[in-house]
Structures are given as structure tokens and as C-alpha cells.
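Lecture notes, unit on protein representations.

Consider one protein chain, 351 amino acids long.
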Amino acid sequence: MKAGRQMKQTGKKKPVLKIASIVFFLICVTLLLPVMAAERVPTGAQEKIEFVSENYTNLPDMLKGRPTSLVTITATLSFPDGPKEKYPAIVLMHGIAGSSESCEGWYRGAFSREGFAVLTMESARLRGVRDAAITGDWKLFGPMVADAYHALNILAQHPRIDAQRIAIAGVSTGGDIAHITAFEPLRASRVRGSLRFAAHLAFYPTLTWGIEAGSNSYTKSPLLIMVGDKDDCGPPSKLQSYLDYAKQAGFPAPVETIIYPEAYNGWGNSWYTPTSYKANLSSTAKCPFALLAPQSSNGLTLLGPRGIIPFSLERWNACMAAAKGYHIGFDENTRNRSFTDAISFLQKAMR
């Protein structure tokens, strides 16, 4: 990687009826909510949007349509100043600790000044998730991906949004969501027709999830992953191993990467000043990529040193324990530079 830019069915009736009622309810919500969200608002204003989303144990359960419960998400759609018939839009996904003005608030404002309508929402706290960064629990991945796809469906039917120019961006865990939403099997299970995110931006993701390489693994929309060369939460070497695997399998991932010198995880959040080592935080830095595997029995495999291996919970727990603690720190120069790079990327991807 070059320095700088690169890179059984059980037979019981009650569960079946329960799932059927959930599916019926979700269909109704999907059909009705975009209409509710279509009310016009003045230029530069904000619009509140509510939608019903789902909770999932993991991504394979999401792919199989197995929600555990429902939750109402409240989102905010912020319009930029300046009149325009239709705006390009960004769905902005927060990090594992939830949304904050010191991080997501900054990105919302920055994207707005570039002419984007920005949709933000709280996926973690509304679900009562507050300690995932410490426990290393991955229970937020499926729900946040579900939230993102709901947002895409709603924005695509909004009269002031250009349905062909809706991108997704995220920081940390939100960056992982920006990556995961580019997996075609998940997109096809959640979105009607050919609708997809036009571009995907991942700012310092934790690099937890990938997908088994194949001709239909990705949506083909451009994807930019930005990492710091000192990131010991989502290290560049781990990203490169995943990209090498996909290339060697004959199906290169449509991923552009940028590595920023002297940057740690968390460079976009001014709350993390000064840079420090957080011994209580969990990461997947020493774990192999967990791969969404639609054709496998449990929908999940791991990317081992020599290729795909079966998923093992024991191995996963062991590598999580080995990777306890990592550095996190704000870097204004890297934040500004990475945002400039992101806008340049979007201009090419969404023209």
C-alpha cells in the first residue's frame, strides 16, 4: 500500500405469526413514512423524520430477515442555505458511543456548507446501547445498517432530494456502516429495485466486517475508506489484507483507500483531546475480518491468514480479549484534510 493515497422452521405457529405481523407492519411503514416525510420546509431549515426500524442479533440474521424487535428512530434532515430544486444528500452515521456535536455535528455542518442535505439520527442511545465501546459487543451493526437503508428509502422519495445522489458517510463504527451498506446481498434484501447509495465514505472505521469475495459482493458504487497510519483500532495492515484477499480471489473490492500520516483513530472528534491510550476500550484489531457469507450455513465466516475459515466464537472472543485498549485522538489537520479528500471523492462519484 502506498503512503498517502491507496490503498428450522420449528413447527410452532406463534413465532411464525409474530414474524408475519412484523413483516406486514414494516411494509406498511415503508410505504407510508416517505409520504409523511415529504412536507416542504424553508431553505436552510431542519425537518424531523420518524421511522420504524429493526433490531438484529447480527448481519446474517438481517440478511435472513430475522428481526428481534422494532424501534422508532427520530432523524433530522438539515438543508443547506441557498435555494435549489433538488439537493444531493448525505446519510451521516455516528460512532459507537452515539452522536455528538463535537464530531457528527461538525461533519453535518461541513457537508451542509458544501451544498448537501444531511440526515442524522441516533441509533445507539435510542436502543439503550451505551457500553459497546467497552464490551466490544457488535449488536449495533445490524440495527445501524437497517437504519441507514430506511434513511435511503425515505430520502429517495423526498421531493427536495435527488434520489440518484444520496451518499452515506460515517465515522468509526459509522464508517463500518458506510462500508457494509455497499454489500449487494444486504442492499438487495432491504431496498426496492436498483436504488442504492451513490457513494460510501468511511472515516477511520473499526474494520470489523467484510464480505466473501464474489461477482455480486458489492453494489459497485464507489467506496472510500480513510485510515490513520497509527490507528491501532482499525490498522491499515488489516485493511490491506482484506483488499489483497478480494483481489487474489479475482473479485477486487471497489475500494479506494487513503492513509494519513501520524493519525490515530478518532481524528474527527474534538472531544478526544489530547491523544491518549484507552485501556478499557475493545477493538477487533487482532481479529480477522468477519465475512458476511450468504452461501454458508450460518451466513458468517472469517478471513484467516491463508483464506476463508469457519467462524469460531471461541477464536473471536480470544482475539477480542487480546486487542483490549487502543489510542484515540483528535487531529484537526487530518480532519480537515480528510474532509477535503472526501468532497473531492464525492464530486467525482456523484457528478
